[in-house]
Amino acid sequence: MEAKANGPKEEESRIDPPTNPMVTPLLSDLYQFTMAYAYWKARKHNERAVFDLYFRKNPFGGEFTVFAGLEECIRLIANFKFTEEEIAFIRASLPETCEDGFYDYLRGIDCSDVEVYAVPEGYVVFPKVPLLRVEGPIAVVQLLETPFLNLINYASLVATNAARHRSIAGKSKLLLEFGLRRAQGPDGGIGASKYSYIGGFDATSNVEAGRLFGIPLRGTHSHAFVSSFMSLDEIMEKSLQSSDGSSTCEDFVSLVQAWLSKIKWSHLSHGIFGETNQSELAAFTSYALAFPNNFLALVDTYDVMRSGVPNFCAVALALNDLGYKAVGIRLDSGDLAYLSCEARKFFHIIEKEFGVSNFGKMGITASNDLNEETLDALNKQGHEVDAFGIGTNLVTCYAQPALGCVFKLVEINNQPRIKLSEDVSKVSIPCKKRCYRLYGKEGYPLVDIMTGENEPPPKMAERILCRHPFNESKRAYVVPRHVEELLKCFWPGSPDKAREELPPLMQIRDRCIKQLQQMRPDHVRRLNPTPYKVSVSAKLYDFIHFLWLNEAPVGELQ
Ligand SMILES: Nc1ncnc2c1ncn2[C@@H]1O[C@H](COP(=O)(O)OP(=O)(O)OP(=O)(O)O)[C@@H](O)[C@H]1O
Ligand SMILES: O=P(O)(O)OC[C@H]1O[C@H](OP(=O)(O)OP(=O)(O)O)[C@H](O)[C@@H]1O
Ligand SMILES: O=C(O)c1cccnc1
Ligand SMILES: [Mg+2]
Question: Ligand 2 pocket check: which of 365, 367, 373, 390 to mutate, most ligand atoms within 8 Å of Cβ?
């Protein structure tokens, strides 16, 4: 197909449908359809509306949030079209008094007249600043409220949760997402894997997420595998070729037993253990025969130091004789700080005693109900864990089950709108706005500022007054070293107009890691973090308060 004169090639510009086929125009609340009908009935449906999608409070007691879920929103609107079956269902769900013309109207709807400006996915974001600004015919944009919130709330929450776990674990640790079995259903599981990866996890055990998104897959084995073996006699196929293929060990089981005996009687490890569990030894040996290049053993089924670790070392040393390097162990119960240190000491003893270089650096993975607090406790106690497998607390976002993103009308037919509330933090910021991040001389972001759409943008090296949107006394002058416009055009209305790229997941992850690194450390620390400043221009401040006074009825005291 020919490339269009000034546009991308058609196939390049085509945007895939949402990952989850359940994400359709019907994945919405009934009231969006009743409102759409009422807009249509009032001939208001094509009025041009601007909505902001934002949250009011950072999750997990922190002062930052990682924005995620944008690509799935763009996929939804790029493919937004009702099927006849869907229209028939809406017709059956609305009162019979609804006129037929509405269903013809629905049949014709797509998002070619909708514009979405958004913060790039993976960015660090803050309360009140729009993550998305959605503009279009009010009835259509209204229908997008629920699916957009659904696609962004959990994605951003779990990406933030992952980023927090990464920040405590430290850069050098491997973080594995193990949560599929505990996730809130299939979409929760897939979403958790995808967005934990964006938040800085290294890999997932979720095979379907690996296929869909190219996330690295990792895994060990379970207690069932260990306890399914009864004795070494079960192992029928005992031969193992050396890693370079030059020789074959006909009886790998005997080689393992010989090593276990050597370890047991070596003067350095003497007394640490007596008889190890032989069924566990059989399981480890079998696993090594199946995966000589990827041997990793779960060592806590019977007794970590008296059985699991010595059995593991015997198999690892036998593999070493044949030129293979074992990967390491996994600890899944007990005191993970203590056991990891004990295991590490044992590996060092083996290295010294038998001259196997780097044996002391053997990988130690830990799992079992890990969360921010346990990671923090392990750090404080000192530990020797290289990789953490985290499931339940990560994917269910146990510490906070939802991020409260909302979708509020800020302008209709060029008329700014405000939503008032007794609770000042819930008052919406009116107007179609532009948002900027101002950077200071040390390179850190200093403040986010929202301005009216037609105000001149803040300029580098030029002093600008940044005001708290609601608190009159809170204001500061900023001379930015660098100004970044936050809301970029991700959906200009049609797939062949210029728009921001939807980058691969890996790039979003890199962006997220970079974003977190460039934050001033006190904003992202765990204990008593400093709030990041979110502000409005002086002009917007005045306008908000003018509108507020205009819209709020004056009470009468009797
Ligand atoms: N050194 C440590 N400091 C703080 N918390 C730890 C430490 N080691 C382990 N933990 C945590 O303590 C909890 C122990 O959980 P629990 O008592 O259910 O497990 P367990 O008895 O060790 O193992 P099992 O799964 O066999 O019952 C887990 O959440 C684990 O992450
Ligand atoms: O603890 P999480 O953070 O959710 O991580 C995943 C857990 O899932 C696995 O076992 P499972 O919990 O199914 O069984 P177990 O606790 O008896 O090992 C694994 O051994 C971890 O313990
Ligand atoms: O591979 C593992 O060790 C694993 C995978 C999922 C859950 N728990 C552990
Ligand atoms: Mg468990």
Answer: 367
- Pick the ligand that lies closest to the CA of residue 204: 3
Q: Which residues of the chain have pLDDT under 50?
A: 1-11
CA of 129 to the centre of ligand 3 (A): 38
Ligand 1 geometric centre to CA of 333 (Å) = 6
Atom 9 of ligand 3: nearest residue by CA position:
178
- Note if the pTM is more than 0.90: yes
What's the confidence (pLDDT) of residue 425? 86
Q: How is the chain split into domains, by residue range?
A: 3-163+400-551, 231-361
Rounded CA-CA distance 377/394 in Å is 17
Atom of ligand 2 nearest to the CA of 370: 3
pLDDT of the residue at 495: 67
Task: Taking each helix axis as running N to C, give the angle between helix 138-169 and helix 372-381, from 0 to 180 degrees, rounded to the nearest 10.
Answer: 20
Query: How many CB atoms sit inside 10 A of residue 96's CB?
Result: 6
**Residue 552 burial (C-beta neighbours within 10 Å; 0-12, 13-18, 19+):** exposed
Q: Tell me, what's the ipTM?
A: 0.96
State the Cα angle at 445 between 442 and 450, rounded to 5°: 140
What is the assigned CATH class of domain 3-163+400-551? Answer: alpha beta
